[in-house]
Hints:
The structure is a homodimer of 464-residue chains. With 464 residues, the first copy, chain A, is α+β, with helices and mostly antiparallel strands. Chain A has two domains: 2-202 and 374-461, 3-Layer(aba) Sandwich (Aminopeptidase), CATH 3.40.630; 204-277 and 296-371, Alpha-Beta Plaits (2-Layer Sandwich). In chain A, 36% of the residues lie in helices and 22% in strands. Chain A has 15 helices and 18 strands. Chain A has helices spanning 2-13, 15-26, 38-55, 124-145, 167-173, 175-178, 221-224, 231-241, 263-270, 276-281, 296-302, 342-354, 381-393, 408-417, 442-461; strands spanning 58-62, 69-74, 82-88, 108-111, 117-120, 151-157, 182-185, 197-202, 204-213, 219-220, 305-314, 323-324, 327-336, 362-371, 374-375, 399-403, 421-424, 439-441. In chain A, strands 1, 2, 3, 6, 7, 8, 15, 16 and 17 form a nine-stranded mixed sheet that branches. In chain A, strands 11-13-9-14 form a four-stranded antiparallel sheet. The longest helix of chain A has 22 residues, at 124-145. Chains A and B meet through strand 9, strand 10, helix 7, helix 8 and helix 11 of A and strand 9, strand 10, helix 7, helix 8 and helix 11 of B. Strand 11 (305-314) of chain A pairs antiparallel with strand 11 of chain B.
Amino acid sequence: MANLDSVLACLDLNLxxxxxxxxxxxxxxxxxxxxxxxxxxxxxxxxxxxxLDAIGFDASVRDTxxxxxxxxxxxxxxxxxxVLFYGHYDVQPVDPLxxxxxxxxxxxxxxxxxxxxxxxxxxxxxxxxxxxxxxEACRAYKAETGGLPCKVTIFLEGEEESGSPSLNPFLxxxxxxxxxxxxxxxxxxxxxxHTPAISTGLRGLVGEExxxxxxxxxxxxxxxxxxxxxxxxxxxxxLADIHxxxxxxxxxxxxxxxxxxxxxxxxxxxxxxxxxxxFLGQVGLSVPAGEKGRSVxxxxxxxxxxEFNGISGGYTGEGxxxxxxxxxxxxxxxxxxxRQDPARIxxxxxxxxxxxxxxxxxxxxxxxxxxxxxxxxxxSPWLEKARGALSEEWPNPAVMISMGGSIPxxxxxxxxxxxxxxxxxxxxxxxxxxxxxxxYEMTSFHKGQRSWARVLAALGGAAx
Amino acid sequence: MANLDSVLACLDLNLxxxxxxxxxxxxxxxxxxxxxxxxxxxxxxxxxxxxLDAIGFDASVRDTxxxxxxxxxxxxxxxxxxVLFYGHYDVQPVDPLxxxxxxxxxxxxxxxxxxxxxxxxxxxxxxxxxxxxxxEACRAYKAETGGLPCKVTIFLEGEEESGSPSLNPFLxxxxxxxxxxxxxxxxxxxxxxHTPAISTGLRGLVGEExxxxxxxxxxxxxxxxxxxxxxxxxxxxxLADIHxxxxxxxxxxxxxxxxxxxxxxxxxxxxxxxxxxxFLGQVGLSVPAGEKGRSVxxxxxxxxxxEFNGISGGYTGEGxxxxxxxxxxxxxxxxxxxRQDPARIxxxxxxxxxxxxxxxxxxxxxxxxxxxxxxxxxxSPWLEKARGALSEEWPNPAVMISMGGSIPxxxxxxxxxxxxxxxxxxxxxxxxxxxxxxxYEMTSFHKGQRSWARVLAALGGAAx
Lengths: 464, 464
């Protein structure tokens, strides 16, 4: 344990330097979904590969058809396990820009009235701050001991926020290089500020963009209004039909493969003392809006959803324009649970839309990613060791939770490489990821590094 | 008639010069609804006042709280009637810009396969090309005869496309100066390319922008999806509720004041041999989308509508963002007929929306203009003289029609000045006003000038 203690001390001593490195990374606007930022994505990959090289990894930037991957290898002690660390260097778009209190790519340290500090920037929590906790732990291990307690491969993606189109081809083409004993995925939250969490359940995701088209051009609503189909009206009607009055999704077959929550899992969740009032209250809401008769935890962890993530059509600028648009579109996503099949959900949605089209209207669809839900085994030895290590670092022992969000890479690691993942992250529920003023707690950044040092030591010790 | 013949010959001879003047006016991007173009609106007003001064009018640019008005006076023969000509120099926005085949403010003459020519530019038909037909007729009259056959006041507005906020205060403040025996309004269409029309009925308009708000910020659809209200979903549901399956508007009280079409008007419309197939077919449609059991002419001339002119919320850029938006908005307009009351319709819509809001949601409203429907008397002596003059110019005699669009100034002339209007315009149904590639037929521009010379002569002769 002397080694680990000196590593932890090293992390404490070098927090400001680590913060400086994170700041450099956060300044790069690596928005993967917008082609205008392709060069910035590459720059972020090169920055990370350079940093990993400096630590002593054998790091490389690997081209794909989209944004590049970063892959870096470091040996471990003979007989020690091989871990694959996964994170992503790309970030979400920043709009609406006017709601940011400081520019999204000028990282700002803000001290709160209670004395805590936070790092405010796009990507601070999702996922640059998180992935740097692992890299800093490795750096300190190398500095203090000259090596790492496990064989470590670091694998950083640049398309996580845009459907990961290059991920599967890359995993397939580099299977031997990436296969490890267990994957460590750092893109999730703690249970609360004092309680670390390992996420063992994840909802899946299907994204669809649907465009409704009617007339061959925009029309004047005076001349044609009353006689011409209005794509906004058609789209609104179809979207409105997707939920019934009890909040259930009406698409035929949507609930195929959706199980009721097992009693043992329900018992674990009941023990978490989750406050629905606090969860909704933090964002100005008070009444659960999902399926009637389900708890909020069920609604966000164990029930599927249909959400409308964007909609646009007609004149949306200042003032008014009496136009009937030629087309309108919506971005729709489905969160999946248990055994729901992404391909079947996508097909059922498309059939639902096309079967509702009135005369003279057409629908076009564009897919945006698809992944099934994930459930990790509760009895994994890796899970037990990581739980113990995390419980050492934080005031409360680590808990096992589920997640409403999707991390498709976990499913791909399992399907393509046969590799389980440990989902360990240090985000907080109020980090505003995907929203203006995204932040990462300084405590998350600092104790996250210390946590990874402990986890690496525990996993490495497993081989001894 | 010798005078009129020489005026008509002068118009024929100077068509190219007239086209040059229209081109100068069309180059000015006088988009009234967007504050970025305020200086251009003023420039258009100053251009027109300068041109009218050059003809011999006493012209001035008159400031308002918004865009300026142009008012110009010219005396007529003793005992001749006084006519007020109305047009508007402002234009609609140009988006979607990428659909224009030539830049909207670089007027282009396009020759069609059948040998006809058209002027392509934003505002060519609505309303710069139209208002210039009258100014050119005055110019030729002055050049050939040294005077005008009527006393003429020209009144040009710069806010017609943005709800005319300054119109009523200006009319009230300048009542004595603007009051004439009859108003001539040039902002309407012919019945077809060979048949001039005088519009005697106009639908009214109420515009509303509604914004639905839920959470205090944008949310991640993984963390909150299923538990949080989604404003796009709430908005879509409310919009979908506005029409029933028969295309009728469900807002309580909406049809108060809506009469069935009188038999004599229905007889006139039946005689027009209107082709529903051609009307819808020109914009790629085939099936009337309005109230079931109503003809297309009824749907667009004599029935009220609710149309959704714009909608926006959440992420609408390239790619995908799994966000639940904090708010979403729609621009909604209602076309009114007969005795529907704009204020009551607006209030009923707002009540309809607020009564449907679920918990944690709020609605905000912004009004965009409101005017009742108009019906002009069929037995006016001005109408008879104008019909005769128009029938002289065109292959077919003039017909009396209604219009689906709204021209609020006609109601204000009646209510505030006690003045009837003759709505005479030379637009065509396929002019794409408010749409990309707006055009004005060269025939409309040329024979429109000749028509006004004939109408002025006929109205002036009325005093003889």
